[in-house]
Amino acid sequence: MPEAIMLREYGGPEVLRMEPVEVPSPGPGEIRLRQTAIGVNFHDCYVRSGLYRTLALPGVPGIEAAGLVEAVGPGVTGFAPGDRVGYVTGAYGAYASHRVLPAALALRLPMHMDERLAASVLLKGLTAEMLLRQVHRVEAGQTILVHAAAGGVGRLLCQWAAHLGATVIGTAGSTAKAEVARAAGCAHVILYREQDFVAEVKRITGGRGVAAAYDSVGHDTFDGSLECLAPRGHLVNFGQASGPVPPFQVQRLAAKSNSLTRPILFHYIAERAALERMADALFALLESGAVRAEPGATLPLAEAARAHHLLESRQAEAPLVLLPQEDC
Q1: Do the domains at 3-114+295-327 and 123-264 have one common CATH topology?
Q2: Residue 132's CB: how many other CB atoms inside 10 A?
Q3: Check: CATH 3.40.50.720 for 123-264?
Q4: Could you tell me where the beta strands, DSSP code E, fall in 8-57?
Q5: Of the N and C termini of the chain, which has fewer Cβ atoms inside 10 Å?
Q6: What ranges do the domains of the chain cover?
Q7: Pfam families given for it (predicted)?
Q8: CA distance 307 to 62
């Protein structure tokens, strides 16, 4: 019988529990999937804790997965039973062995892409495309700052930006993570626990600052990231691993004519044409080897709580993927 991780109350990882569920036949414009790999993201942790109250309870969390099409509903074209697809959705429901999904969200996977890789790279890779090519268009010769450069999105950002010809300054929390960041294309790595990253950025850039600062840390780094900007520099806050950013006085941007953005991926992939264009760019870079990603570490779907604990405690050294029992 189909199973899913049900969230019935906000709290710690222990509130994630497996339950049997009924999965209907697909309706008009829908497909039914047997999921083979499910991505685990910090977004899921924010939803589970109640920091993001964007999932109506009780509900099934999770925003990305990959699997096989089992059936297609009326009016669906371009997909057939047996097709391998991946998706990212703001409507949740990914922590499940089976599900019904709007066909407009499904992306046919390239022939050689592992479903476990797709489940761990789609959200992060589409986010990287959005950040580097749309929110702030990184060009050759620019210098940018990437916080958490050894993290999942950070590694993709650094590789992609370096491929575009930018000089990447990354921050990392340990010498081991610094090596990961360098391997991902960082020309300079700042050990933020030992060094003042603002002073180091100013030293590296000769006092000018960076064209863009990509900050997924939030509370602990926001003010410093703003200080690191060059005149007309752009601060892109796209996460809050250390907590939400306090209320901000917009006139602070005027000192150097800076700009500030808080983008959400789902607004950028709402149109099918945009989703396909962004996915094509990601798939092409992965295929060429210009951007590298690994399938990640796997856990059974029933151990979603453990996956959240590993992620939040920073013990996960690779992306985490949940596998329904039959695929373990």
Answers
A1: no
A2: 23
A3: yes
A4: 16-20, 30-40
A5: N
A6: 3-114+295-327, 123-264
A7: ADH_N, ADH_zinc_N
A8: 12
CA end-to-end distance (rounded Å), the chain: 16
| Paired strand residues for 17 | 6
Tokens coding 234: 């752009």
For the chain, helix (H) and strand (E) counts, in that order, are 9, 15
Both structure tokens of 143? 């210098």
Give the Cα separation of 191 and 258 in Å (integer).
25
Question: What angle, rounded to 10 degrees, do the helices at 115-130 and 272-288 form?
Answer: 110
Q: Tell me the DSSP string of 188-251.
A: EEEETTTS-HHHHHHHHTTT--EEEEEESS-TTTHHHHHHTEEEEEEEEE---TT-PPPP--GG
Q: Please say whether the structural domain 3-114+295-327 has been given the CATH code 3.40.50.2000.
A: no
CA–CA distances in Å: residue 148 to residues 70, 194, 216, 220: 38, 15, 7, 12
Segment 121-158, tens digit of pLDDT: 999 999 999 999 999 999 999 999 999 999 999 999 99
- Each residue's pLDDT tens digit, 172-185: 999 999 999 999 99
